[in-house]
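User: I'll paste a sequence; please echo it back and then give the predicted structure.

Assistant: Echoing your sequence first, then the prediction.
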Amino acid sequence: DTNSVQWNEAEVQLVDYALQGGRRIGAIDGVVVGAFDAAARPLGICFEIENFQRGTSQRLPLARLAGKYRFRLVEPPQEHEGGFSLGRCEAFFDEA
């Protein structure tokens, strides 16, 4: 299946964490490494988790996501104990 991806434990923990709150995760364009450059303000997309099915020994986890809005990262992300990064963002919307 061309839509299948391999999940690692940190990604599953990220989804679990998001499901405890606002059911949203963000994906950043590129990788934020080293010193945070506030002027560069990395861009990302916020996704709402519509459905999540845990994996089994015979099936990968499956998530259905809906794009909500674009955002700029406003401060350096912090590593969460679950192995994923958390950061503050600022939503922005295209002018019509």
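DSSP finds one helix and six strands in the chain. The chain has a mean pLDDT of 83.
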